[in-house]
Amino acid sequence: MEINIGIIGGMGPKATNQFLDRITELTDAANDQEHVRYILYSDPAIPDRIGAYFNGTKSPVDAINKGIDFLERNGITTIAIPCNTAHIWFSEFKAGVNLLNMVDLTVKAILDSGYKHPGFLATTATIKSRLYIKNLEEAGISAIIPEQEDTVMQAVKLVKLGEISRAKATLKPVVKELEDNGSDSIIMACTEIPVILNREDTELPLIDSDRILAEKIILSAGKRLKPYNK
Amino acid sequence: MEINIGIIGGMGPKATNQFLDRITELTDAANDQEHVRYILYSDPAIPDRIGAYFNGTKSPVDAINKGIDFLERNGITTIAIPCNTAHIWFSEFKAGVNLLNMVDLTVKAILDSGYKHPGFLATTATIKSRLYIKNLEEAGISAIIPEQEDTVMQAVKLVKLGEISRAKATLKPVVKELEDNGSDSIIMACTEIPVILNREDTELPLIDSDRILAEKIILSAGKRLKPYNK
Q1: Could you report the per-residue pLDDT of A167-193, keeping only the tens digit for each?
Q2: How confident is the model at residue B229 (pLDDT cuts 50, 70, 90)?
Q3: From the UniProt record, which GO molecular function terms apply (chains A, B) (predicted)?
Q4: Rounded-to-integer distance, Cα A80 and Cα A219, Å
Q5: How many domains in chain A?
Q6: Given a cut of 70, is residue A230 above it in pLDDT?
Q7: Is B46 touching A (CB cutoff 8 A)?
Q8: Is residue A20 within 8 angstroms of chain B, CB to CB?
């Protein structure tokens, strides 16, 4: 059987590695051979999403479509793009295959969860584009945007520089703000966030777009999820 | 410019993720765009190397050659295979491109380092095949094989099951043995080993085949290594 799962990564590299680790850790496998087979097209040179959204610098669409073409040409039938901000341009991606929509999958998980006041951690481009917010509002859920939105961006940039412990310290007051302002959960709507924030860092339930997409990939590959125990 | 770096991964998945993380962490990059671009062909279904070597089960050669074909067909010019044990079959790999030899690169690093009595952590197949040992002996260096060789295999298997902290506890007495028996350094000649063993765990210098291959990939991609500070 051929490999049929494709991933477009590099946005950014550390977040992609975390995503691959999620796939590995969440698969119920007793040996190497029971793990997911996939092709990763990792192109960190894909133009910066934030700059494209706010400053009109080069759009990431062509570079992402090049990756999609590459994967399709090689027989891939399901593609994941583990970068929430890139999903701003989702309608411009040219896929003749099953292109998973990370935002839709996560919004569905939020609706299923029953949380009504989720705190929202994302890049400023994801926030301003109302990528998640619009879908949630339509379902009667108002996401709580932290006042310290710029601080979230700083933490994301620190992850991209490999400064994980500094990123964690930077994000801490934002998490505190969400805990204090009535959030009943936290949506991690940027793949850099779960690199630094985990269950030890807050008592609020975490809704993790990265994990949700990883689980979808495992199931799409015909593999089993590990029993949920953490 | 096209992507010209290829990686064959999945042997095992956790070790591959660690290898990708090494590439990310060791690259001197101020933003996503300065990181290495690559295609990862990740096929954990590649037949088990240990079984093939000792029990004559299916050889991994055809599956690895399929990966090499895939990468070559897509314009890749440099390929890394981050699995030491797979290098037992290196002469059977069909590459028309620059196929990096992790063992040769690491042996060169050992010779450059000047260590004369390196402790040797590897799978039993790597040990019995004398993959590193022969090259080192020819240079007058006798690698010290731990008496608790089976324990190393247990630790490797635990990594493959995602049981990292148990793997660390399992490997600890072997590291103690190497410290006590006159080893002047430790060769990590299995990509599962650096997932569990790092500089905090021993005072002996670590010679890490995974890191050496990652650095070679970064340079092959025309990127810069981070200044060495740890």
Answers
A1: 999 999 999 999 999 999 999 999 999
A2: low
A3: amino-acid racemase activity
A4: 12
A5: 2
A6: no
A7: yes
A8: yes
Could you list the active site residues of B? 83, 190
- From CA B133, how far away is CA A18, in angstroms rounded? 35
Q: Tell me the residues of chain A between 74 and 93 that have a Cβ less than 8 Å away from chain B.
A: 74
Beta bridge partners of A99: A79
> In angstroms, rounded to a whole number, what is the distance separating the alpha carbons of residues B88 and B182?
28
* Cβ–Cβ below 8 Å for B40 and A36: no
pLDDT tens per residue across span B94-142: 989 999 999 999 999 999 999 999 999 999 999 999 999 999 999 999 9
Which residues span the domain enclosing B159? 103-209
Contact list in A for residue B35 (CB cut-off 8 A) is 10, 12-13, 44
Residues B20 and B36 in one domain: yes
CB-based contact, B60 to chain A, within 8 Å: no
Which CATH number goes with the domain that contains A132?
3.40.50.1860
Whether residue A225 is contained in a domain is answered as no
Residues 154-193 of chain A with CB under 8 A from chain B are: 160-162
* Burial class of residue B229, CB neighbours in 10 A (0-12, 13-18, 19+): exposed
- pLDDT, tens only, B137-193: 999 999 999 999 999 999 999 999 999 999 999 999 999 999 999 999 999 999 999
Q: List, in sequence order, the alpha helices (H) in B56-148.
A: 61-73, 102-113, 124-128, 131-138
Residue A44 is among the residues annotated as catalytic for this protein = no
Q: What is the mean pLDDT of chain A?
A: 96
